[in-house]
């Protein structure tokens, strides 16, 4: 088959990462990049002459005969760019979160769109969390009862500048930025959320929250706790740790490793601690740029296009994150338990 032609909007870190991956895979090729900043677009023109460079995303989509568009811009630009790609019947990858809020998600989902979509919640493609999901599904260690989780990074210790710290441009603070990853992974591992009760506060930023604590109860009676902050020291990179209690064991999982403690000998695990590291779980990845999970999600989208099947985190699945986050913010404002009603 002919290679799928890919255009990338936004030549920041994530845009260049996905551009590199798609240009290296067997079933795709990078044909265009759109970058608004003149300096960056000129540098790209000088160094990658085989790829067409644009400063207007609409011009790129109009002129290029694309199959797939990759959107890696700030979240306040997502909706209009996704709508443009939809109008051109393109398959779409967009970095997380999908949009600013549930209302924007509903507008996107109301449009007729038959191409494939994927939102970049990359932890669904990390081997440690994938193994955690298998443990939950195969019930070797019984059902999950409770979990504790935390997602921290050492990033904010004074008032910050930029769109991420502007409520009107980002949609929120640490809950939107880091918390959306955690909420999506909870949907993936544990299912739909029933109620939330949350507390949060700004400390260093005047406009958005820096610390959040959320109690969650799921429709299947699992319940747990999520602690979020980008203002905790000694976390060079974002780290999402989930420790969940099962009938016959405990599983602790992060991006780097998974520790499966079993109370009994099973077909897959010895009694006691069974530790697996990410680097030993990664298999059959043709290129690793910044992490195997990014290649896995790009490959997944291409395979969904080729095989005509739904992706693991399409627009409708990703929009559920906003239904939960909107209610978490409401709980923080009202200091009460909120029911999560999935409006998507």
3D architecture notes:
The chain has helices at 13-24, 38-47, 57-63, 78-87, 102-109, 127-138, 167-170, 174-190, 278-281, 292-307, 315-334, and strands at 4-9, 28-34, 52-54, 68-71, 91-94, 117-119, 144-152, 193-201, 211-218, 223-229, 239-246, 249-253, 257-262, 272-277, 338-339. The protein is α/β, with parallel strands linked by helices. The strands form 2 sheets. A 9-stranded mixed β-sheet has the order 14-13-12-11-7-10-9-8-15. The chain has a 6-stranded parallel β-sheet with strand order 3-2-1-4-5-6, with helices on both faces. The radius of gyration is 20 Å and the shape is globular.
Question: Any chance you could write out the topology, listing elements then pairs?
Answer:
Layout: E1 4-9, H1 13-24, E2 28-34, H2 38-47, E3 52-54, H3 57-63, E4 68-71, H4 78-87, E5 91-94, H5 102-109, E6 117-119, H6 127-138, E7 144-152, H7 167-170, H8 174-190, E8 193-201, E9 211-218, E10 223-229, E11 239-246, E12 249-253, E13 257-262, E14 272-277, H9 278-281, H10 292-307, H11 315-334, E15 338-339
Helix pairs in contact: 1-10, 5-11, 6-8, 8-11
Rg estimate, integer Å: 20 Å
Low-pLDDT parts are none
CATH topology of the largest domain: Dihydrodipicolinate Reductase, domain 2
Number of domains: 2
CATH class of the largest domain: Alpha Beta
Approximately how much helix is present in the residues? 25-40%
What would the principal axes of the Cα set say about the shape? Answer: globular
CATH architecture of the largest domain: 2-Layer Sandwich
């Amino acid at each position: 088959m002919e290679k799928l032609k890919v255009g990338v909007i936004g030549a920041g870190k994530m845009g260049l990462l996905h551009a590199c991956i798609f240009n290296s895979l067997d079933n795709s090729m990078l044909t265009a990049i759109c970058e608004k900043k003149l300096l960056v677009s000129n540098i790209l023109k000088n160094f990658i002459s085989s790829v067409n460079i644009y400063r207007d995303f609409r011009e790129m989509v109009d002129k290029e005969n694309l199959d797939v568009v990759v959107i890696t811009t700030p979240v306040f630009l997502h909706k209009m760019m996704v709508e443009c790609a939809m109008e051109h019947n393109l398959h779409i990858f967009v970095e997380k979160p999908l949009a600013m809020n549930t209302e924007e998600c509903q507008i996107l989902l109301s449009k007729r769109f038959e191409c494939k979509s994927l939102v970049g919640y990359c932890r669904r493609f990390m081997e440690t969390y994938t193994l955690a999901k298998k443990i939950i599904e195969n019930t070797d260690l019984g059902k999950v009862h409770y979990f504790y989780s935390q997602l921290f990074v050492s990033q904010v210790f004074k008032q910050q500048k930029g769109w991420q710290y502007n409520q009107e441009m980002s949609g929120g603070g640490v809950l939107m930025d880091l918390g959306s990853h955690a909420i999506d992974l909870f949907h993936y591992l544990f299912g739909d959320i029933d109620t939330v009760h949350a507390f949060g506060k700004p400390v260093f930023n005047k406009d958005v929250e820096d610390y959040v604590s959320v109690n969650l109860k799921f429709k299947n009676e699992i319940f747990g706790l999520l602690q979020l902050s980008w203002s905790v020291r000694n976390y060079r990179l974002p780290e999402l740790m989930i420790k969940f209690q099962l009938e016959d064991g405990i599983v602790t999982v992060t991006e780097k490793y998974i520790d499966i403690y079993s109370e009994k000998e099973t077909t897959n695990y010895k009694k006691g601690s069974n530790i697996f590291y990410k680097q030993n779980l990664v298999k059959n990845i043709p290129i690793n740029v910044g992490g195997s999970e990014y290649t896995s999600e790009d490959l997944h989208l291409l395979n969904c296009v080729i095989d005509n099947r739904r992706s693991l985190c399409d627009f409708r699945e990703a929009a559920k994150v906003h239904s939960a986050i909107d209610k978490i913010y409401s709980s923080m404002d009202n200091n009460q338990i909120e029911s999560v009603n999935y409006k998507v």
